[in-house]
Write a structure and sequence with these properties.
Structural class: alpha+beta
Strand order of the largest sheet: 4-3-7-6-5
Strand content: 15-25%
Largest sheet: 5 strands, antiparallel
Number of strands: 7
CATH class of the largest domain: Alpha Beta
CATH topology of the largest domain: Beta-Lactamase
CATH architecture of the largest domain: 2-Layer Sandwich
Shape: elongated
Distance between the termini: 54 Å
Helix content: 40-55%
Order of helices and strands: HHHEEHEEHHHEEEH
Radius of gyration: 24 Å
Number of helices: 8
């Protein structure tokens, strides 16, 4: 039987070996993540020498990482042999906000879902696209569904409108042009002036409707999650089939969504300091 000192020595030795064995892979992973984050945060592509200087590696080692990331589809190389990233990756600030948002919003979404038993969803603004980041599905057999990771129409969905309406004119236009403007149903607004008027109405009243603008037979109401100073990078919504959308629900749903969105905003303010 090993003595206590020998057991401690063996454990220390095992830990040392384990750390030594993992260190090179950990450094490579860290450098690879640095490359992805750097390229994702830039609009222009970067040459090998600049990337190597940024991550503190030689060109040969950097090239190996770039080829691996390119082979996996995380980054791409243009005709000038510079590298760029097309995917939407959250920055560190966005990731902190997104994590806090999901934690603060989840209990609120659960209560909102329990109110009417309809599908509720949470959306977040990533640079120039709006994505669904959390969903609680309806308890009804016939329902309006949503899915995590889906990119939202900034001019048709209630979540997309609720976020787009509160951005600067430049960012709002970029959101529209990035997604593209086209008819999803006969009720979809495609005229740029009409879309601008609709977004202005959303800003004024503090909530947005999607009345069969993305899916025929579907009604959705969303509201922005506002931070102090009026910044909006998230929104919450409730969706239901038109058959269950009564006059009574139409009257109470907008204020309900605004109240729940305000509750999320209050919790988020506290979480982010």
């Amino acid at each position: 039987m090993l003595s206590q000192s020998n057991q401690k020595s063996k454990r220390r030795s095992a830990k040392t070996v384990s750390r030594a064995a993992l260190a090179p892979e950990s450094r490579s992973l860290a450098k690879g993540l640095m490359i992805v984050e750097a390229l994702a945060s830039r609009e222009e592509s970067m040459p090998l020498k600049d990337i190597a200087a940024l991550i503190g590696l030689g060109k040969a080692s950097t090239l190996r990482l770039l080829r691996t990331l390119q082979g996996l589809g995380y980054i791409h190389r243009d005709e000038h042999e510079n590298y760029y990233c097309e995917r939407v990756w959250p920055t560190m600030k966005q990731q902190m906000r997104l994590t806090a948002l999901k934690q603060c919003a989840r209990p609120v979404l659960e209560r909102l879902n329990a109110e009417l038993g309809e599908t509720v969803a949470l959306a977040f603004l990533f640079d120039d696209v709006i994505r669904v980041v959390d969903v609680i599905e309806s308890t009804h057999h016939i329902r309006m569904s949503n899915y995590r990771g889906g990119i939202l129409q900034p001019y048709a969905s209630s979540l997309g409108k609720s976020i787009t309406a509160f951005q600067t004119p430049e960012l709002a236009q970029r959101l529209l042009y990035t997604y593209g403007i086209f008819a999803l149903t006969p009720n979809t607004l495609t005229d740029f002036r009409a879309i601008q008027d609709d977004l202005a109405a959303v800003r004024e009243r503090g909530y947005a409707w999607d009345r069969e603008e993305t899916v025929l037979g579907g009604i959705c109401c969303g509201a922005p999650v506002q931070m102090p100073g009026g910044e909006v990078f998230a929104a919450v919504s409730m969706s239901m089939p038109k058959a269950r959308f009564t006059k009574q629900i139409e009257e109470v749903l907008p204020q309900m969504m605004k109240d729940y969105a305000a509750e999320i905003g209050k919790a988020l303010k506290k979480a982010l300091g």
